[in-house]
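---------- Forwarded message ----------

FYI, see the FHA domain-containing protein record below. Original note from H. follows.
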Amino acid sequence: MYSIIVVPPPTTEGERQDARFRLAPGERLAFGRSTPDNGLVIAHNGVSRRAGEITAQGTFWILSNLSARHTYVVENPEGAGEHIKVAPGRLDAPVPFEFSRIVLPAAGDLLPIDVWAPRHDYLSVAGGADGDPTAPAFSMDRSKRYYAVLAALCEPRLRDDPHAPLPTVDQVVERLRPTWPAASRTAVQWNIDYLAVKLRLKPGPEAAETGPRLNGKKESLVSLALRFDLVREDDLAVLGGAPAWTPR
């Protein structure tokens, strides 16, 4: 059974190559403008002749950046902005994502190389609790309206692009109408303020000090929710149907 599948970047015509590289544990794949036999050749004059190397390691893989000047970015397309940077000359950087995208800067272009690792294994907890339960890090009730508001804010970055702009309050109102016909700007904004307090991004009214309001409140909420998996793509079911708007 193969461990890693590597999908080459688009050609100059903007189409993906038909090739797929399959790496068993311990196997390596060199990539660059000029590579050894069986390597991944990227025909772009902005890519180093020996640009890098991918090595399969069971359920994860490692990336070596063999370029002298360019930092490579490895994105988790399913992680709403999660990424790691691999500096020039860095050898054997471990990549933990199941689905990854290596982004190569190449003379004004950004060339994506997609990499799939096997599904990761997780601990199976058996038996009952052996003591007092651990308090949850974030207490979230998915049946409440505040959670639907949070899901609507996160939706563009879960469905589309990890850098997609966040919806406006008006767009959130429209998105929630199928399941919350009485939704209004005031109600949505109240829930956003409530979430900021609930998730400890700002103090409650009784403890708040005078001073400037929290800037980037929606951005902070979405960043926290996506970093800690408070909203996953499956959770968007609370919104019902597809969005009626497209982020610009």
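H. also flagged this: The chain is about 20% helix and 20% strand.
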